[in-house]
Mutator family transposase
Amino acid sequence: MSNNNTKNLNLSSLLESTMKEVLKEKVEFILQEEIKEVLKNEPVGEKNSRNGYYPRTLDTVYGRVEDLDVPRDRKGEFQTELFEPYKRRMVAVDELVIQLYRHGVGVRQVGKIMKSLLGDSYSQGTISNVTGTVLQDIREWQNRPLKKRYCALYLDALFVKVRRDTVGKEAVYIVLGITPEGHREVLGFYVGGRESSNGWSEILNNLRERGVEEVLLGVFDGLSGLEDAFLRAFPKAEVQRCVVHKVRNTLNNARKKHQTELAQDLKTIYRANSFEEAQAALLELKDKWKKTYKRELESWENDLPVLLTFFKYPTDVQPYLYTTNLIERLNREVRKRLKTMDSLPNIEAAEKIIYLNVSDYNDRWARRKLSGFGLAKEEIQDMFDNRYGKK
């Protein structure tokens, strides 16, 4: 090893040692102040006093602090806010483990990272216990009351590999809503089984039980039976079939040499200024492509009303309504976190990662509105009033 490398190592060790010593002093100072406050606020007539110290090893995000002096009182009532009883980790360490897990870092990899930080590895059981505290949060989140009104509900599913004796794909149902003010919110997610209209029906009924009553529009793809399931749950709502899915399916049936031209022609339908203009554009396409793609264009003609429902809504918000892009963008991010793990050991492991990500998105979205909803506020209010009655 060169002299420079040796000096760097020595300097690094010195800095680490100094940092831990400073941290130890600061933590012990806080503990002293805490017990002073506890004893100072003792009720009149109650007798309590200090009772020495006990040694404690504490894991922090800066490394492991050895022989920390934790003060005691004679009644044994003192408890610091810095860490929980019988735990040797500060809350910040648990939060670090959870955030690593949220980003799709597997249990083994988390253990290695913690070893590099603390000088000692965390067992898979310890890491699972730390992330397991999230499960209670998930149950509360999945049962939280929801708002009464949503302009649109977006339904979409992604798939994740889960081990149940053997590895198989499980559906993750996700529901994203847009409030009348333009805030996005993930209303719920549900993991397990294969995607089906029956599965969606249970989820939609759960949304109603949690307070969702008035919905203007449901936006989703063409899964068989899904439209009927949605309208049973929200009979006064309308359905918007995802135009992007329809275009994609049409192009998949087209010859490669025609795909670019056909894609441009299809845009004249859903980028039209009105339903009538879109109908005229479809007639032109049928005339142009009738010999080559007669069946595909007949499918467009049959589905046109449900593909162009968005034309009934204010122009300022139409770009958000004709496609499931909003929820697909979210799903891509969630899928990215899950993809780093080849397969997950159980449903709960998938739920933890998904929850940590969607709750983070909800926190961020609560501070931002989609553009256009402010301008369309009165029109949206009128649509709710006409369909559900004035409040």
